C-alpha cells in the first residue's frame, strides 16, 4: 500500500486543489427589457420575473 513519506503542507495541498476551471455563467435575455441576466432570477434592470413586476426599479 502506498503511504506518503512526508506530510504534505496545507499550502501545497490547497494549491493543488485550487486548479479547477470556472465556467462562465449562462446568461439569458430578459423578455421585457432585452438585457442579459442570470436565468431564474429577477432582472436587475427592469425588476420583472416570469412576466410580472417583482422589484420596483427606479
From TrEMBL:
Family: Belongs to the bacterial ribosomal protein bL32 family.
Gene label: rpmF
Entry protein name: Large ribosomal subunit protein bL32
One record GO biological process: translation
Organism: Lucifera butyrica
One Pfam family of this chain: Ribosomal_L32p
HAMAP family: Ribosomal_bL32
Organism lineage: Bacteria, Bacillati, Bacillota, Negativicutes, Veillonellales
GO MF annotation list: structural constituent of ribosome
Ranges in coiled-coil conformation: none
Keywords carried by this UniProt record: Ribonucleoprotein, Ribosomal protein
Gene Ontology CC: one annotated term: large ribosomal subunit
InterPro entries in alphabetical order: Ribosomal_bL32, Ribosomal_bL32_bact, Ribosomal_zn-bd
NCBIfam families (alphabetical): rpmF_bact (TIGR01031)
Amino acid at each position: 500500500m502506498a503511504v506518503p513519506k512526508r506530510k504534505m503542507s496545507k499550502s501545497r495541498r490547497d494549491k493543488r486543489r485550487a486548479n479547477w476551471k470556472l465556467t462562465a455563467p449562462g446568461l439569458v435575455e430578459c423578455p421585457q427589457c432585452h438585457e442579459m441576466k442570470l436565468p431564474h432570477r429577477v432582472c436587475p434592470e427592469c425588476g420583472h420575473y416570469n412576466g410580472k413586476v417583482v422589484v420596483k426599479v427606479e
